[in-house]
Amino acid sequence: MALLTQLVPVIMVLIAALMLVGTLGPAVEWLERRRVGRLSAITLVFASLLLLALALAVFTVPAFLMQVTSLVEQEPELRKRAVSFLASYPLTTSLAGTLRHLQYGALFKSYSTEAVAFSKSLLSIVAYGAGSFFLALYIMIDRARLRGALFAVVPRAHHMKLSRIMLNLETIVGGYVRGQVVTCAMMAIFLFILLSACGVQNAIAIAAFGGIADVLPFVGIFLTMIPAVLAALASGSAAATVVFVLLLCYEEFESRVIIPIIYGRALRLPSSIVLFALITGGTLYGIGGALPALPVAATLLMLAEELKLELPGETAQPDDVTTDRNDVIGEAEYLRRTEGMTAEASAGVALEISEERKVKENAEAAEADDKSPDYGAR
């Protein structure tokens, strides 16, 4: 346990690398189906990801620094407006007095140590991120050998279950990361349009920050709202109010409509589990722990379901009986098709059978939804 505690950063790097593999794997397979060599497909996908990250840094970091400089220069006027706004309401009069007499020198001095520690943590995150990128690259290149080694240490009778778990992991991780990319991009686009319409300068920097912060459900909106409202305050209190209200409306629309559509059945987590997982990950390892909290929680629930961990008082359901029967049929077919094969070759056959079965089950589930009485109402 002490060794695992010391290796937590390494484990986080491995988790991040596996998340990248699950996200980029479908793109590599798509290129392979179009007769692009696997090594060429991997090189193309990872090079595109690297170029995209560099382009985002080039277009956002200088603009963000300019925005910060502009906010610092406008600080006296912004503080004056904020004090006037707070003083107009009895409940916030004391806050107006505190803000009016706030001394930044003492504030910066008290937080100088924390700022240095944060800078070191930021550099560590960048270094670990680079390590995750290259580890994911090597995992993709050595996929067949790594998969064969994993199947070699697992008894042959459990290969079908292992292959199904691997496919479910790919669905969970890939669906989560791709969903995050889409929702973050939509938040950044919405925020850029909103701030540009309100006349905020360097809106692209705040929009980029808002898109990055949106990876944290429930919390990201507050991290986004503070700089957006402060920047809009320079254009007037009316612009700041519009930004505040529309961001709240968009957050409600995102959580109620966009996220369920984009994630679909990839995570299948109740809201209570989502919040608990985020609190647990954030408490243990900060933002770095909150980011993989949702796919980790979804993976644990999936493993409990696949490994048939029954709770006290739980009875077998018809779906469980059907799944067990299909497992027996699938294992018999797998043993017949892989007789005399190596573990590496057998892994490919197991994944092929599991994928065919998953496609069939998804089609049956969609057909059942179409025939359900409340489908039209939904």
Description:
This protein is mainly alpha-helical and 378 residues long. It has one domain. The longest helix has 39 residues. The radius of gyration is 25 Å and the shape is elongated.
Largest sheet: none
Poorly predicted regions are 374-378
Q: Provide the residue-averaged pLDDT.
A: 77
Secondary structure tally, helices: 16
> What portion of the residues fall into strands of 2 or more residues?
under 5%
The computed structural class is mainly alpha
N-to-C order of helices and strands: HHHHHHHHHHHHHHHH
* Structure summary, number of beta strands: 0
Based on the model shown, name its key terms.
elongated; 378 residues; single chain; mainly alpha; disordered C terminus
Q: Short description, anyone?
A:
With 378 residues, the protein is mostly helical. It has 16 helices and no strands. The longest helix is centred in the middle third of the chain and has 39 residues, at 159-197.
